[in-house]
């Protein structure tokens, strides 16, 4: 009887296109999944899906969800920003210095079920030494944090067969403990009442929730973002679903559309063109090409930013097209606005209309066919009260990477299939 490694070419389990990194990630996922299966032998601890509620905080500036950490005698819950561009989940821990204002940093060193992660743990990637254990560094805008990785038990609300609303517990889940935290924006907008503790990363990677809970998540998640309404505070019916519950479907009028993306590259998508009023803008596609080394260029599908950011040459082309559209009504942009770049002190009425805008995504690098993501006017423009009533374009220029923001994804169901590297979407009332 011969024994073959699971990644042996004789078994033909892995695709021939797998790189060394892909192969190592595959083996690590199996190791972590089997470890969790041993720890979760009880059927009620092995659901087929996880659900989490998404909420808006800080006037819609942050899209957050709850993370709950438990021990035998205690429970810790805090909001974390959902970030599809990162593979790391981290929260601010007690004894931090400096710290951003927060009601209750996680008391890691006093938590009975918490242990630090060693450098030889499979999830310690990249290997970064921090005071005798595995460390990490992370950037969020101008914010910077560093600290150590640890392991403890997380609790989620899960919907498995016949187990609606059952609390599900997952031990030995790795995450980052932020100790040195600088320049995070929570203080400026939320101040001392800040409830945001850190970030939940949705990109795959050795230390990500996506890979650690692969047996449940199955490399699939979906969401449908409800519109932000200041009147309802932070309440939202938006749900983030993982695993078998991450589904999408259409009908005769609404067709599911699918295009390729790179989950291993922070949800990079192949953007082929931008259209305004059906006219393809003159934009050099090189500015949307992925910079694989430093991630300084590329177009990504994100949730951590409410607004869409476009590389400055692309934004300039969009802005010119918008200005030309409103010129037909004799309107000129406002000269100075506090937040947005393009605003009008006008109200659409009569036969006046907003321009249409479309992002054309390539099906894949080899299939140059295009899939149209149409942004409806209510997701494109925001009403404002600056020197009267007006509206602004909910996009901004950037000298960095381009990101499709959360507001532009409102009332669309998205399904991310990380295994097959596909994004599916459909217009839907969320």
Topology:
Layout: H1 20-39, E1 49-53, E2 55-57, E3 62-70, E4 75-83, E5 90-92, E6 115-116, E7 129-130, E8 133-140, E9 143-160, E10 163-182, H2 186-190, E11 196-201, H3 209-212, H4 214-217, E12 220-224, E13 239-243, E14 257-262, E15 268-269, E16 271-276, E17 279-280, E18 299-301, E19 308-311, H5 312-327, E20 343-344, E21 357-362, E22 370-375, H6 377-380, E23 381-384, E24 390-393, E25 395-398, E26 402-404, E27 412-417, E28 422-427
Parallel strand pairs: 4-11, 5-10, 18-26, 19-25
Antiparallel strand pairs: 1-13, 2-3, 3-4, 3-9, 5-11, 6-9, 7-8, 8-9, 9-10, 12-13, 12-27, 14-15, 14-28, 16-17, 16-21, 20-24, 21-22, 23-24, 27-28
Family: Belongs to the peptidase A1 family.
Protein name: Peptidase A1 domain-containing protein
Domain Peptidase A1: 63-426
């Amino acid at each position: 009887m011969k024994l073959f490694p699971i990644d042996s070419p004789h078994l033909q389990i892995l695709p021939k296109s797998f790189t060394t990194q892909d192969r190592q990630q595959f083996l690590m996922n199996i190791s972590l999944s089997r470890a969790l299966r041993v720890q979760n032998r009880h059927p009620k601890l092995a659901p087929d899906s996880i659900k989490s509620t998404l909420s808006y905080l800080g006037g819609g500036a942050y899209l957050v969800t709850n993370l709950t950490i438990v021990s035998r005698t205690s429970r810790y819950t805090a909001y974390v920003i959902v970030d599809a561009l990162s593979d790391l989940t981290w929260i601010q821990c007690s004894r931090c210095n400096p710290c951003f204002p927060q009601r209750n940093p996680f008391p890691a060193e006093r938590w009975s079920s918490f242990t630090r992660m060693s450098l030889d743990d499979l999830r310690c990637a990249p290997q970064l030494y921090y005071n005798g254990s595995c460390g990490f560094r992370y950037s969020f805008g101008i914010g910077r944090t560093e600290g150590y990785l640890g392991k403890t038990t997380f609790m989620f609300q899960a919907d498995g067969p016949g187990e609606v609303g059952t609390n599900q517990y997952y031990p030995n889940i790795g995450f980052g403990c932020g100790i040195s935290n600088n320049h995070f924006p929570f203080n400026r907008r939320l101040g001392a009442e800040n409830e945001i503790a850190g970030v939940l990363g949705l990109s795959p990677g050795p230390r990500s929730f996506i890979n650690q809970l692969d047996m449940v998540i199955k490399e699939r998640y979906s969401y449908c973002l409800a519109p932000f309404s200041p009147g309802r505070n932070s309440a939202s019916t938006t749900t983030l679903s993982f695993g078998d519950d991450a589904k999408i479907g259409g009908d005769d009028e609404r067709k599911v559309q699918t295009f390729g993306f790179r989950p291993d590259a922070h949800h990079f998508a192949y953007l082929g063109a931008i259209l305004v009023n059906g006219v393809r803008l003159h934009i050099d596609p090189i500015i949307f090409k992925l910079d694989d080394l430093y991630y300084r260029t590329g177009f990504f599908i994100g949730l951590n930013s409410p607004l869409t950011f476009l590389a400055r040459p692309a934004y300039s082309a969009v802005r010119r097209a918008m200005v030309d559209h409103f010129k037909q009504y004799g309107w000129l942009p406002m000269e100075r606005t506090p937040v947005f770049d393009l605003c009008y002190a006008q109200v659409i009425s009569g036969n006046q209309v907003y321009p249409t805008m479309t992002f054309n995504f390539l099906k894949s690098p080899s299939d140059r066919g295009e899939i149209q993501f149409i942004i409806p006017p209510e997701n494109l423009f925001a009403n404002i009260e600056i020197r009267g009533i007006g509206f602004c374009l909910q996009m901004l220029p950037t000298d960095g990477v381009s990101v499709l923001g959360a507001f532009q994804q409102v009332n669309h169901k998205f399904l991310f299939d990380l295994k097959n590297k596909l994004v599916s979407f459909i217009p839907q009332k969320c």
